[in-house]
Design goal:
The protein has a two-stranded antiparallel ribbon. It is elongated and about 55 Å long. The protein is mainly alpha-helical and about 150 residues long.
Length: about 150
């Protein structure tokens, strides 16, 4: 197998990040709407169709993240970045699991949110995204990528 060039790997990582950002941008309005209803204790006043749409958006985002996790796992990596890529894959996998937990905390049939699971997922997503960002910075500033 032909070794992958560092610049090529960096480009593929940037493309991955762009797709993840697109998923985030798509689901963020639903998250903001749900979070506002929860913070204002007005979830019961939210129209049923809105809640179901939010739940669907959360599940769609979770599935999209899962697909991106597979793409990330299959990226070929320069040998010197193998450890950091392995860490990145692990952190992103954990992030995906936490988005699934958030989606599962919503019960569209009863229009309820399991708050303990929802809050735990929020914290985990923030934690793993910080680790992902830190690892990405390390990768993108690795020797051979700096100018």
């Amino acid at each position: 197998m032909k070794p992958v060039k560092t610049q090529q790997f960096a480009y593929q990582l940037q493309e991955f990040l762009n797709r993840v950002d697109q998923i985030n941008e798509k689901v963020n309005p639903s998250y903001i709407k749900l979070k506002a209803a929860l913070d204002d204790h007005k979830l019961a006043e939210m129209p049923d169709a809105d809640f179901k749409e939010i739940a669907a958006d959360f599940y769609d985002a979770s599935e999209a993240y899962e697909k991106e996790a597979l793409v990330l796992e299959n990226l070929q990596v320069p040998v010197q970045l193998l450890g950091m890529k392995t860490n990145l894959v692990g952190y992103f996998h954990d992030y995906v699991l936490s988005t699934q937990e958030m989606a599962e905390s919503l019960d569209p049939g009863k229009q309820q949110v399991a708050m303990a699971e929802f809050s735990k997922s929020e914290e985990e997503q923030e934690h793993f995204m910080a680790k992902i960002n830190h690892t990405m910075t390390r990768i993108l500033t690795a020797p051979g990528l700096r100018r």
